Amino acid sequence: MDYITLSNNVRMPVFGYGTYKLLPHAAIVGVSCALSCGYRMIDTASFYGNEKEIGKAVQSAQVSRQDVFLTTKVWNTDQGYQNTLKAFERSRLALDTDYIDLYLVHWPMREHLVATWEALESIYQSGKVRAIGVSNFHESHIALLLEKGYQCPMVNQIELHPYLNQEKLRKYCLQKNIAVESWSPVMKGNAQHDPVLMRIADKYDKTAVQVTLRWHIQHGLIPIPKSQTADRIQENIDVFDFTLEEKDMKKIDQFNKPQRYGSHPEKVYINGIF
To answer: Do the domain assignments include residue 16?
Structure first.
């Protein structure tokens, strides 16, 4: 596994296992399989309803807790200063761990954004979390925090894939030394059906999904693909033994439509509706 160094010098794997919509039993099986395949980062959230099972899988794995990078998030209805502090503690206990590696604000909520971020800073100062960040934040949401003198998020986890390459937001985060994680990195599985990706994949004797994940890595992004199938979990991480040529990277860069598969952050921010 390769790593990047966050702005606070914490090392974070460049590849992770996503657990959105994994039911309890599937979460245990999936996380256990992922860790045995070499994944060292597991991404969850209180909203996913599987933190307890993920904690069990991590505890029973043949990998030390110190080698597993655990990420979870505070949900929209738990935001606000005191509510976030309580939500973090619930997540920590559910995951059965003394600390969490990365804690994120799941979505920007206009009325609670500042207070929620203040809570994350407080948790970070307590030492119960190694890094703090945001999810689904646009430049304006991050700028609001920075304008008020708060600490810059260390990570921004956003919907990002060839059909929505987020180039402008990526450049902004790079300028601010914010690592960018990609959720839905293979377009909810649609990468495997894209004819151009399939042709590029044939060139490298890889799958279209592997080519797409490699595109993320070569852009300095951190993809967190999800799968419930052991073979696919293994296939997804087998992307460190080849390099896409620059012409193929540029070809994939041109896929941008843009097309979303999830909610638009600005609509959530303004209306408070996910």
So the answer is: yes
Q: Which domain holds residue 226?
A: 10-271
pLDDT at residue 51, rounded to an integer: 98
DSSP-derived secondary structure for 28-96 = HHHHHHHHHHT--EEE--GGGT-HHHHHHHHHHSSS-GGG-EEEEEE-GGG-SHHHHHHHHHHHHHHTT
Read off φ and ψ for residue 19, nearest 5 degrees.
Answer: -125, 15
The Cα–Cα gap between 15 and 215 comes to 12
Cβ-contact 219, 170 below 8 angstroms: yes
β-sheet with 100-105: strand ranges across: 17-18, 41-43, 69-74, 100-105, 129-135, 155-159, 179-183, 222-223
- Residue 108 contacts by C-beta under 8 Å, 6 or more apart in sequence? 134, 136, 137, 138, 141, 265, 268, 269
- Active site amino acids: 48
Q: Which residues of the chain have pLDDT under 50?
A: none
SS (H, E, C) 187-244: HHHHHHHCHHHHHHHHHHCCCHHHHHHHHHHHCCCEECCCCCCHHHHHHHHCCCCCCC
Give domain status of residue 24, yes or no.
yes
pTM of the full structure: 0.97
Contact 86, 49 (CB under 8 A): no
Question: What is the torsional sign of CA 270, 131, 159, 19?
Answer: negative
Count of the separate structural domains present in the chain: 1
In CATH, what number is assigned to the domain containing residue 50?
3.20.20.100
Is the CB of residue 109 less than 8 Å from the CB of residue 80? no
pLDDT in tens, 220-245: 999 999 999 999 999 999 999 999 99
